[in-house]
Amino acid sequence: MSRASTLPVALVQMRCGEDPDANVAKALSMAREAAAGGAKLVCLPELFRSRYFCQSEDSAHFALAEPVPGPTTEAFAALAAEFDVTLVVSLFERRAPGLFHNTAAVLDGRRGYAGKYRKMHIPDDPRYYEKYYFTPGDLGFRSFDTGAGPVGVLVCWDQWYPEAARLTALQGAEVLVYPTAIGWHVEEKDALGEAQHDAWELAQRAHAVANGCYVIAINRTGFEPDPTGKGGIEFWGQSFVAAPDGRVLVRGPAAEEAILRLDLDRAAIETARVGWPFLRDRRIDAYEGITRRFGTD
Predict the structure, then answer these.
(1) Per-domain residue ranges for the chain?
(2) Does the domain formed by 6-281 have CATH 1.10.287.610?
(3) Is 119 a catalytic residue?
(4) Closest by alpha carbon to 244, among 275, 282, 219, 218?
(5) pLDDT given for residue 228 in this prediction
(6) Phi, psi of 115 (to 5 degrees)
(7) Residue ranges of the chain with per-residue pLDDT less than 50
């Protein structure tokens, strides 16, 4: 069966509150609206079941974790089957006692659970203390063959690494999906905010160009206080889709929830890869140094 010439996608940009059940209900409602509107690929932001708990190190937050597949994937799998839509759902995975991952599940229409990606790059920065919670992924970089076509899934901090985008594209992905939770430290916004946001978007637009693919970045929005009572993160929203030529095709608002819809032209992938043959001209015989930390040591 030939594929449709366009891929209707939807990005669910949402605020996340204190109640996980309410967050899941909202995410299901917004994803349902997107699917009912004709989207064949619907993407949700990183760790949407809760507020971004990694602002502090608190063992109580491990109670938020669940198996993958598990209760939340089951709820979204029912929605995926009802509309025959592919969903990318980001979750806090409990793999075993004391072993947790930042994981994105792919739910592929009537086929159901298609697999998962475990976040490979784990940050450890002020208010992003993810190394306390997450073990680095061990499933490698993956592309999933779905009803929406070959979809590669990465997560947030992965989006800064060209190696991650390249290796996922080399698995066959034509769309790279990045569930995200990123924003400003409120005390830094005036001085650094514009430059930080521009760098984030620019890095991912470069992945689209270098790999001749679409890039979808789905961020949350709203202010979430630091549990210690000192400041917090103002998530900058502005979820976006970059085309294979690097253009931003759609960008969400900074401070509001939104469902962003658009049709991706599949032919643009072939056009970009033929016109800019970066995959053809790769010197795979000369890249052994990429596996070293730095220099020749």
Answers:
(1) 6-281
(2) no
(3) yes
(4) 275
(5) 82
(6) 140, -175
(7) 1
Which pLDDT belongs to residue 17? 97
Active site residue 46: yes
- The Cβ of residue 238 has, within 10 Å, a number of other Cβ atoms equal to 21
SS3 labels along the chain: CCCCCEEEEEEEECCCCCCHHHHHHHHHHHHHHHHHCCCCEEECCCCCCCCCHHHCCCHHHHHHCECCCCHHHHHHHHHHHHHCCEEEEEEEEEEECCEEEEEEEEEEHHHEEEEEEECCCCCEECCEEHHHCCCCCCCCCCEEEECCEEEEECCHHHHHCHHHHHHHHHCCCCEEEEECCCEEECCCHHHHHHHHHHHHHHHHHHHHHHHCCEEEEECCEEEEECCCCCCEEEEECCCEEECCCCCEEEECCCCCCEEEEEEEECHHHHHHHHHCCCCCCCCCCCCHHHHCCCCCC
Amino acid residing at 272: A
Residue 40 a catalytic site member: no
Active-site pick, 46, 130, 201, 224: 46
Separation between Cα atoms, residue 13 and residue 48, nearest integer Å: 10
Bridge partners (DSSP) listed for residue 221: 236
For position 2, what pLDDT does the model report?
A: 62
Q: Of 40, 119, 224, 234, which residue is the catalytic one?
A: 119
First-residue to last-residue Cα distance in the chain: 51
Q: Which of these is catalytic: 156, 174, 201, 224?
A: 156
Q: What angle do CA 170, 172, 176 make, to 5 degrees?
A: 90
**Which backbone phi and psi does 233 adopt, to 5 degrees?**
-120, 130
Q: pTM, whole model, 2 decimals?
A: 0.97
pLDDT for position 296: 79
Which residues on adjacent β-strands are paired with residue 88? 43, 106
User: Which two structure tokens, joined as six digits, stand for 55?
Assistant: 């602002």
Beta partners for residue 89, in sequence order: 105
